[in-house]
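If you are new to this repository, start here. Below is one unmodified record pulled from the training split, so you can see the exact layout before writing a loader.
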Amino acid sequence: MTHATIRRVTEDIEQFKFNTIIAALMEFNNYLVKAKETAAYGTPAWDEAVDSLLLMLAPEAPHIAEELWQRRHNTQTIGYTAAASVHRQSWPSFDPELARADTITLVVQVNGKVRDKIEAPAGITEAAAREMALARPAIQKWLEGVEVRKVIFASGRLINIVVG
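And here is the target side for that same chain:
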């Protein structure tokens, strides 16, 4: 999740999609809150995740990111130096292999209304997604007695079944 979030935030910054950065960081924060109750807490991976969160937060919320960075790295007690600032740190990098999702949540719509969600393998083909969606009981009840006119597939995100 750390590497996937770094990738997402980095891409959003590069594409000037500043409105989605905070959403990604909130999702990551919620993930970390849950992970704090697991064996991951206190490990080097945990430290990397928290530091990465603060580094990614710095462009959007510079003052709070700086305050949290100083508290986390005890710069208050050892004396503040500019080198200790969160804003003087390198941007976190991500490993594409670790950032790659194994599964995706595929939203299934009928005539533009969300009717189901499917956990599917990442990289699912259109044919396989269509087959999975049409086989779902939650979808079949919306298809009874109507003709499927079109199936629109947005790779990795959405499948919309148009009926009439």
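Two things worth knowing about this chain: DSSP finds eight helices and four strands in the chain. Helices lie at 2-14, 18-35, 44-57, 62-72, 75-78, 96-99, 126-135, 137-143.
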